[in-house]
Amino acid sequence: MRDVEADLVAALVSLSSVTASGVAAVDIEAGSPFVQVTELPSQEAERFSNGPRRSLYDLVDVDLDVYAPTLDAVFDTAQTVREWLLSGAPGLEFTPVQVPVFARRPDYNERIRRRGAAVTFRVRSDN
To answer: Is residue 79 classed as helix, strand or coil in its secondary structure?
Structure first.
């Protein structure tokens, strides 16, 4: 299967004013606004009906967290990312199939605002 997390990070950094990373440790306060990408466990969407018993497509959930120092900045960045996803995520080799609204999420740092969503992608298996 593709490295969905790495591909998504590479595509997000190509958007204007968006910094992104996978699960690597990052100084969020230094590079705000920032999008953290975390791939979640996936599920099989389609299998071959005959022949090898393997997945043809998977549904992969990815948690996207947007961090910024102000409410306006976190909202604007989350909206930019969501609009890109709703437009089909140009540049990705897989397709978003479920793109919810980015909701407020709590953060332990009172100087940081956070919004997030779990986005589902349809990914072709490379087996």
So the answer is: helix
| pTM, 2 dp | 0.83
Token pair of 112 as six digits: 């940081």
Distance of CA 11 to the CA centre of its chain: 10
- C-alpha–C-alpha distance, residues 42 and 38, integer Å: 12
From CA 109, how far away is CA 127, in angstroms rounded?
42
Residue listed under structure tokens 């466990």: 41
Which residues 6+ apart lie within 8 Å of 76 measured at CB? 33
Closest CA to 66 of 16, 23, 115: 115
105-126 pLDDT, tens digit each: 988 888 889 999 999 998 877 6
Query: What's at 84, amino acid-wise?
Result: W
